[in-house]
Amino acid sequence: EVSTDDPETAFCTLANREALNPEEGSIHHCLYQFTRNETLTETNKLLCDVCTQRHCGPKNNIKSENKYVYTNAKKQMLISLAPPILTLHLKRFQHAGFNLRKVNMHIKFPEVIDLAPFCTAKCKNVAEGNTKVLYSLYGVVEHSGTMRSGHYTAYVKMRAMNNHLSDLVLRGQSQALETEPVKGQWFHISDTHVQAVSVSKVLSSQAYLLFYERLL
């Protein structure tokens, strides 16, 4: 879907992303890098239909690929619809020559995360005037080992059912904003072994997958 927005607001977010100053090695820094503004130039120029039609006339008059007009452009990936459940998948590998190597670096992640700096100013499922889009952590998948072998374990929070979140999933209706993490007990699950753990233990894990639920 192609839409035309005011260039002054096309790259605006719900909250000022430049005020973030995210710490390197954090999930905020990962999101900041993933949603950064990119300039497309040279071989990455964007094919512009408007420029092409202005220069060559209607599309059906264009007989050669050389007649298409490409132009410099800006590109940015932002969240246009705040999901009820947010799943973040961390890239835990990097290329080392012809081989893949696992990245064991600890990535810091919070118990409550605000997605507003990474959402469009017209983000759906966000009430008008809200400048926060908060999510509470409820699950983590951790991988130990190498690229060739290893073991998956999980941290899961046992908590009460969130009726407001159910309404959002079923009816697309958002309610008043909460700011505190959902209360509950964390458990570490490894095969058949289940053990209660503290939230500090969860936040120190080598996260591979992070699961957050919208705070409503």
Automatic annotation (TrEMBL):
InterPro entries named in the record: Papain-like_cys_pep_sf, Peptidase_C19, Peptidase_C19_UCH, USP, USP_CS
PROSITE patterns linked to this entry: USP_2 (PS00973), USP_3 (PS50235)
Keywords, alphabetical: Hydrolase
Domain USP: 1-215
Superkingdom classification of source: Eukaryota
Any one Gene Ontology cellular component term annotated for this protein: nucleus
One MF term in the entry's GO annotations: cysteine-type deubiquitinase activity
A biological-process GO annotation: protein deubiquitination
Name of protein: UBP16 hydrolase
